[in-house]
Predict the structure.
Amino acid sequence: MTDQLASLDGQKLGALTMALVSLGPGRASGEHRFSLSLVSEDGSVLQPPVIEGLYFEGRGRWYRPWLEIRYRNLLGGDVDLGGTENEESLFKLLCDILPPGSHIMVPYRTHPVTATALMFRVPPAATPLGFLMYRGGCRWYKDWYFAEGFMEGEEKLQATKPLDEERKRSKTAAIREELEDYLSRKPDPDKTDMEIICRDLARRVLDTPD
């Protein structure tokens, strides 16, 4: 068990506890497949796992660690993490195991608001998944809307943590400018629900003093 993944086991998300329920080798050296579930106060393990992922521990100076995760916000039939503080805390904990310059990738096909918003050129930080990555400290995005080759898998949003404070300030300023431009545009009348969610997230980012 790597120290980084082990650090997630037992972390609290409100009344729920994170449990590292599986860990095994990945497809290449340095990769680890893992699953995280949430455990309720009565000891019940909520299904399906909230996270199923692949963690690369890095190699040498040039190959930094990364995470690729499948995130499920609907658990146990009546638990929905979507839009909650627990959801933000989950992504903060995941991003915290990554050093500066590392990235996290999340497939978004099963997250319809994010998928639609990216398709219609909403800034990534104003989408539900992109917002969570921003809260986790990421400041640069890449939309893998057309995966490159059979190993790349499905469409995913990638977000990278800045290498240092100077880069963080620069990327944060660029994101804020992008969000201000987005909010200045007239909302799409055919995408009312998406616009309400994304514009609220954009304002929340802009209201954050970082």
The chain has a mean pLDDT of 94. The CA atoms of residues 67 and 104 lie 5 Å apart.
